[in-house]
Amino acid sequence: MEKRNLGKTGLSISVLTFGGITLDEYDGKKAGELIAYAVDNDVNYFDSAPSYGNSQYVLGPALMPYRKDVFLACKTGKRSAEESKAELLESLSAHKTDYFDLYQLHGVKLEEIEQIFAPGGAMETLNWALEEGLTRHIGFTTHFDDAAMELLKYDFLETMLFPINYAYREAKNSGVAPLERCLEKGMGVIAIKALAERKWREGEKVTYPRTWYRPFYDNPRFARYALNYTLTRPGVTTAVAPGDERMFRMAVELLKKQGGNAIEPEAEEVEQLREYAKVLAAEDVIF
Known about the structure:
By secondary structure, this protein is α/β, with parallel strands linked by helices. Helix content is 39%, strand content 16%.
């Protein structure tokens, strides 16, 4: 599978990322089988968080045979130094590892940034983790343009995890400015929601509950368009597969059919995505 440099971190990672939430409610055996499949297909980047149910407790043991050959990222959703430090230490223990390759401020909103960077804020934990070798790199995740643009003012943050999705960009023009700024700064970008189609509608049967949105599970053609769209936006390093084993396997197979590489969509394919984004009702766009 194609590898790309994650910004200036020095990490060379697969264009497809395994999302740890996929393993929520899995037992150790089932988790081990899926991680083996990921590694066998040259996926070397794994994204985790303590908010993903019991996933970190099965992901860690499943990764142990491969730990020296893969990269593991985790996050904290806590905003104080005390709480985020406790969460970091618990995540290290849960993942059966001495360090994370990347540790991130998780799901940041604009109004939380002042607290994070104030004395006693979570940024103290990230700095401490770097000093102690508990993480090798630090970054942030957010769903909001305003929060992203504010966090991108801090040059010591090395990566951004953010929705880079056909409808988000084409229907709302969202995510454009943060991605351009990351490209200017040479930051690593981990894209989420690449294979998201739209929101689940009221009364609709939710067949992929851990995705929080309706993925392109029944339209392989549009799934290919959407994944390639995300992965070929300038500045994007990797895309996190939706949090469902079926979607992860679909993404792996889509890339395998392309020689393991992302391919720039044809103009006609982009236009089809753009037209589909236009017909979605405002409440259908997932962000």
